Amino acid sequence: MTAQDTFRVEELFLIASAFGGESVFGLPDRAVFQLQGEDGFREGYEALQEKGILNETGELTDGGALVVESLENYQSCQSYVRLNQFLFGFRDDDSENAYLLIEVEEDSAYRFEVMDKVFILQLLNQQFPLLGRTMPEEEKSFLMRELSAEDAELAALSEPDERFLSMEYFHVNEEPRVEENRDFYQQYFLFVWKERLIAVDVVREAYYQVSGYWLWNELYRELKFPVKEALENGTTGI
Question: What is the mean pLDDT of residues 171-198?
Answer without folding.
Answer: 97
